[in-house]
Amino acid sequence: MLTAQTTGLVLHLDRDGMDNGAFSFNGLLVGYVLASSSAAGDWYGYLVFPVVICGMLSTLLSSALSVLLSKWGIPSFNLAFNVVVVSFIAATGPHNPHFPQQGGGPSPAAWGVEALDWLQVLASIPRGIAQCYGSDSLITGCLMSVGMLVCSPIVFSHCLLGSILGALTGLALAATPAEIYDGSWGYNSALTCGAIGGVFYVLNWSSHLMALISAIFAAMVRGAMARFFAAAQVPVVAFPFCIVAALFLLVDSNTKQLLRVPGDRMTYPEEHRKLFKSTTVGVTNVQPDQDPT
């Protein structure tokens, strides 16, 4: 509850959501259900991390869903809580060694940190970028990273951070080492983090923080969707990126903290920071700087 409300205050999100308790209510439900569904016993310290992250996500999704559903005059209720908790539980699965769920039982396959090749985990970061184009080649990922660095350091840094967060989230969710190594957990997070962190929003500390959160959520959605898609032997491709990026672009802010770039003015992140005033109010009302001459 504290994390959810603080996220709304720090990012200056929809004031109604804070005043009527919607943000804190979703955060309270997230913390309660994650704790009650855990099989790790009372006072399991590691559970603090998903509770904090999911609490932040619940606030951002509550704001986004309120904007979406308000077009039909429908309240968002506690839909954000449901989306976040179901995504986390589906992504972790019943046999997760880090975050065991009630009734999950022992894992059928041994998994441990000692089984990881950390050099391969490191190599998965550029591979996650290469997977944006369907390649798991380390060389391809490095070349693409260099190209992004030359064209836009902001896009490069956010895609790199996204790939790192995707791999780390995969590790936390006990993904198989092979899926980590080939970059499968990195590319949706890289695309999402790059899109939110400077392309669709003018880069500032608020949009940067939101980009990092969106990267983690994209990995969670990827893990959840992979379990359902596996039954049909269908890859998740970039569905998690599309879903998460669209939701985060609906986040409502009436302050200068989140400035969304109009589609007809979109160029590249460094240019966005030059074109648009940091004092502009409203997420959809970004105006270009006027030439004083």
From TrEMBL:
Keywords: Cell membrane, Membrane, Transmembrane, Transmembrane helix. It catalyses: urea(in) = urea(out). One of its GO terms (biological process) is urea transmembrane transport. Coiled coil: none annotated. Pfam families: UT. It is found in: Cell membrane. GO terms for molecular function: urea transmembrane transporter activity. GO terms for cellular component: plasma membrane. Belongs to the urea transporter family. This is Urea transporter. It comes from Strongylocentrotus purpuratus.
